């Protein structure tokens, strides 16, 4: 980031929802390093969250509350004079959404309109909003890779919650001229992911504990895999794009554009963990999962000047190192 850009972030007051998640923790770390005043919106305090483990939380203002509670969201915005919102908070597990659709819709859909409406009501304060949608918002499409001109067609509960999140952000942008931009990332991985049902953290934990890794799918599903540091750079690029108009009211795909099967990612993860010969237990049960889904990121390259910087090998290695420290500490 240029000197002028770093200076701009040092002057801002930023609210991050989903603050204890993998991306939220990493984003907050980046912002704090740039001198930004950060308000972390926290629902549940997880002691294994990187935000807490690293004691980074002590360098933020903490607002406890639930996204479903509009008063709590509004209080966070007004009480801290927020000018920038990164809305990352959501129920993010596909399996959990399948089991508990109502709770997922409340957190992901109601939570999003609460954030957007707080920004609308206090547009004298809020100058930029970045909303985390997902590649899942597209649902199943007949053409690959997915680009931003494709319709949002979620069908399973998690997909629908992200389609709605995305459409709500677009609605507020076009109806109320809300300064919002939308991120649609592929599968984000990296240090700080505590969702063990996901292929990379689940495999690493199993290997470090001497257990056989488990694959929920048959291993042939194809996906994008984006390192958390590249996701953070994407969110920051979107915020800058709101300011210069290149991203305002728009959705952007963020991807390495190098789709991999689950088995390919499994093999690379095992190699990074020092056990290249490990064999998985393949369950072949992936409820509510899209078989093949990966993204075209040309718009982000063209309009935002964004591109991923972390290779899969490098990303997996620093991810393994983080889990080694976590599990040793535990």
Summarize the structure.
It contains twelve helices and 14 strands. With 330 residues, the protein is of the alpha/beta class.
Share of helical residues: 40-55%
Shape: globular
Q: How many strand segments?
A: 14
Q: Spans of 5+ residues with little confidence (pLDDT < 50)?
A: none
Q: Give the mean pLDDT.
A: 95
Compute the separation of the termini in Å: 36 Å
The computed structural class is alpha/beta
What's the number of structural domains? 1
Oligomer: single chain
CATH topology: Rossmann fold
Taken in chain order, the helices and strands follow as: HEHEHEHEHHEHEEHEEEHEEHEEHH
SSE layout:
Blueprint: H1 3-10, E1 13-17, H2 22-33, E2 37-42, H3 50-53, E3 61-64, H4 70-79, E4 84-87, H5 94-99, H6 101-121, E5 128-132, H7 157-176, E6 180-185, E7 187-189, H8 199-208, E8 214-215, E9 222-223, E10 225-227, H9 228-244, E11 251-254, E12 260-261, H10 262-272, E13 281-282, E14 292-293, H11 298-304, H12 312-329
Kindly describe this structure.
By secondary structure, this protein is an alpha/beta fold. It is built from 12 helices and 14 strands. The longest helix has 21 residues, at 101-121. It has one domain: Rossmann fold, CATH 3.40.50.720.
